From TrEMBL:
SUPFAM superfamilies: GST C-terminal domain-like. Pfam families: GST_C_7. This is Glutathione S-transferase UstS-like C-terminal domain-containing protein. CDD domains: GST_C_family. It comes from the Eukaryota. Residues 76-212 form the Glutathione S-transferase UstS-like C-terminal domain. Signal peptide: none annotated.
Amino acid sequence: MITLYDFDSKTKHPWNMSVWKARYSLNFKNVPYKTIWIEYPDIEPTMKKLGAQPTGLRQDGSPLYTLPLIPRGTHALQAAFRRLIESNMSSLGLLVVPELIRKVVNAPSAEYMTSHYLPNFGISDLATWTLSEEQSIAEWDKVKELLGSVHAMMKAEDKWIMGDQISFADFAVASVFETIKAVFGKDSEEWKRVVSWHDGRWDRMMTELERYSTVY
């Protein structure tokens, strides 16, 4: 059985979009797996223990280890995930990372993210930092624009990005929405707003994908 490593959280709802891509794919293929929950500081020692290779390099040249991690024995699947980890929604960072630290992740991951990620956004003190309404609108507009480029490739009657055929592209887009839902909540104004974009296409897509969103 495949073991899928994911980040633990206070809410017990998965939030990492890269891992969501893997989870959707495994569920769609009906591949048996189990999830093991870890914290950010545990990624590198866990991957080294499993003999996994770094997923990249840090700016200083040291090895970088990230999730999703599916241990050896599933090389083809790992390679596919490495090629298909796209949908670089960097515009979401300023919107979700501070809120992840404040509301979602556990203390070990919060400490790690505060020291490693917040400086990238110019945030030195999260306790006193706030995103202005003008900034928030601008960042959400960027997210809407990126999703709009996907919407523009689709016909009005298309259920999936490739038309009638579900594909990894759908899982990549859905993973973005899963992160938004995990951070802001399904009853939030943020969630209701984003799924209503582009004539409600994303709300319909997420409803269709619910059957592949089970967490094992």
